What does this fold into?
Amino acid sequence: MIEVDKTSKLLKIETATKSKLTSVDFNDIVFGKTFTDHMFICKYADGKWQNPAIKPFQQLTLDPSASVLHYGQAVFEGMKAFKDDNGTVWLFRPDENFKRLNRSAHRLQIPEFPENYFFEGLQKLISLDSEWIKQGVGNSLYVRPFVFASQATVQAIASLEYTFLIICSPAKSYYDGGKINVLVAEKFSRAANGGVGFAKAAGNYAAQFYPTSEATKKGYQQIIWTDSEKHKYLEEAGTMNIFFKINGKLITSPVNDRILDGVTRKSIITLAKDKGIDVEERPLSIDEVVKAHKTGILEEIFGTGTAVVVLPISSFSYKDVSYSLPQKADLAENLKKELLAIQYNQIEDRYNWTVKVD
Ligand code: COI
It folds into this structure.
């Protein structure tokens, strides 16, 4: 158990009087539905972030005219904490999440969040709720920092007030069943040039719900998003970055205006290169993938993301034709295994990706 110093020079800390921990069945965790005992909160007003605090997890009050409810000015992050076999808790590349949070905020005209508040809030919050993290590969704490426009106004302008929070949710797997079938988008797009696709803007996800629910009705778990101009290039899959193994090479879309600069994506690229695998970050068309399938050189497709880690795709469908992938996704499995071993402090972290929570 982590010894928690419940004082901080930067934050006000108010702890919960009663923990919800005993009422949670950790064998039956559904992603994103259970939250820990505390949350971090900080408000922006009068031109500055102020009063950072940790409080018992609680509901917020919001004016019905709060800007976020009308114009969706909000961004979020997703990261995970892991407990190793000795009970030590580790965050995975939180600096990358912090940098991306502020890149997203900048694009949405949200004031950047101070680094010292972010890391002190994160460390204290996770230490306080560390008993919510169970040991064993597969168990983790999903950490969700987010910020939204809280000014009471329906003027369509950037808000003058914001609320930043970090909440935490114990997690197991994101998808039941391990592999997914996906539909290649022929009409809808997730992002366009000059837009906010690279940012973790709340609206990027809301815009996926309708096409994804149509795909779900047809038996697919996710959509492979294609470029908005020609629906030719394969960009992301659902909420994940996407990788294709063709003839021994690993190919993924380059990061640009439309592609999320995924922390798992960049970690997988590093791990794959260090295994001597050729990694190409380049536009990849559906025609090339279908051709590779026909000639037998399409070996694997998998998605990556914080929530899913690495998720093999079993089949994709394009223009009403379904293409099955080989049962065994060796590379996806190997990369996932290595990444998890680093995250759970089971092997040496030669990249300095993990950060201890103390
Ligand atoms: C993540 O993997 O962090 C995501 O963004 C997925 C989330 C939308 C559940």
Notes: The mean pLDDT is 95.
